[in-house]
Amino acid sequence: MPGEEENGRDDMIIDQPQSDFMRINALPDEFNPNYLKLYYGKLFPHADIFRWMSYGTDGKHPGCDQSFFGRREFSFTLDNDIYLRFQSFNSASDMENAIREKCPFKIDIGPVYSVDPAKRHAYAQAGDNVFTPVERELVFDIDMTDYDDVRYCCSGADVCLDCWPLMTIAIKVLDTSLRDDFGFNHILWVFSGRRGVHCWVCDAKARRLNNEQRAAVADYFRVYKGNENSHRKVSLMGQALHPFLARSYTNVLKDFFERKLLSSQQLLSDERYEKILDMIPDEGITSDLRGKWQDNRRSSMAKEDINIFRWDQLKHLLQSGKQKAPGLRRCVEEIVFSYAYPRIDMEVSKHMNHLLKAPFCVHPKTGRVCVPIDPDHCEEFDPTTVPTLSKLLGEINMGLRTAGDNEWDATSLGQSVRYFRSSFLQPLLKSCKEEIESSYIAKKEQSRNSLSW
């Protein structure tokens, strides 16, 4: 987590004459800090972020908490790794002006505190409970680097279309469970800009979970429990899978593993099949499979088919009627879970005060915008075609004469902003306003009843 830093830097001038935009013709496809002035000035959806973080409290309804947005923590990462923690803003214009002025390389969003985080020092003498987080979205962070032991096309921060299905699996599994098992409705999935995805669960009941409750939700999803020294990194105990795990396996994991990962990662190639054999706790079966696969090596079978062929052999041996031990029959599922099941950063989800990068930031390493992902169509998402900062500014340059009120609408960012508004923000705010009205009526009724005594 970024450390607290109070010192800022010189103000940055953002307003530039139109001729400056026109001079940007063929922009190199890489991150350039100078482009951020134009991005924050022309494309970043300041008003939408404000409306989201206000959760309906910016209205005129008497039940609105006008202090709500002002108690939200924002963190700015500036050039040279300067961190500005505990930033807070009283209005949409205050937030927009600060972002335009400082041009942060990254914007992180923290919790809503009991008091204005920028004034926390004034409450330092009052005790530990005065300045404390009181509300925060339930968040999940899934990073591709946590899958480096099961992907062979890339490593570290690199991603490609062969390993990206691991993120698609995570979105499908978690989104379905969060909705069906926990009853959440307002869920936002966001591309991290480089190598993973973030999830924001924004229902009121999710935002008000305490740390213990968040840990319980996160633990519900925890199946991957091994380490680099473990052969079996997943242990599915019991005679039958938990309904959530069974549904995830049947509807998502099995299909993606067999249709995508086996071949794209060459999981049962001659160089890699020993890793899977090590996960089978029966030396007789592993010896039998090894012998069959060494024979396969000498056959004329097409290389792209050998992974599927060997997987079918493995399933037949482990799940045939001869194998009475439940552990052996369950071993096929354990292999699939080990390679394909979501690997969540548990600490991010457990604590209310954890910071998470705001949507629509630009990743400084790739120049790509952190755009929302539609979970209903996440299989179509391609991280390699996400708009880059240079591409967007080139599109602005080309469309200056035709751009309307929203300049992002004439760029490749337009679809992402429209999705954010229509599919996430509008239903969320409708729900928030209904809750504010319902809570206000309930408080009035309670007050009336207390007076009647």
Folded structure, characterized:
- The protein is of the alpha+beta class.
- It has two domains: 18-221 and 345-444, DNA primase, PRIM domain, CATH 3.90.920.10; 243-340, no CATH class.
- It has 15 helices and nine strands.
- Strands 1, 2, 3, 4 and 8 form a five-stranded antiparallel sheet that branches. It has a four-stranded antiparallel sheet with strand order 5-7-6-9, sandwiched between helices.
- Helix 3 (46-54) packs across helix 4 (92-102) and helix 5 packs antiparallel against helix 8.
- The longest helix is centred in the C-terminal third of the chain and has 39 residues, at 414-452.
- It starts with 17 loop residues before the first helix and ends with a helix.
- GO terms for molecular function: DNA-directed RNA polymerase activity; metal ion binding.
- Belongs to the eukaryotic-type primase small subunit family.
- This is DNA primase.
- Its EC number is 2.7.7.-.
Q: What's the Cα radius of gyration?
A: 25 Å
Give me the count of strands: 9
Gap between N and C termini: 52 Å
Shape: globular
Question: Per CATH, which architecture of the largest domain?
Answer: Alpha-Beta Complex
Question: Domains counted in the coordinates: how many?
Answer: 2
Beta-strand content estimate: 5-15%
CATH class value of the largest domain: Alpha Beta
The CATH superfamily of the largest domain is identified as DNA primase, PRIM domain
GO cellular component, one term: alpha DNA polymerase:primase complex
Cofactor: Mn(2+); Mg(2+)
Keywords: DNA replication, DNA-directed RNA polymerase, Metal-binding, Nucleotidyltransferase, Primosome, Transcription, Transferase, Zinc
GO biological process, one term: DNA replication, synthesis of primer
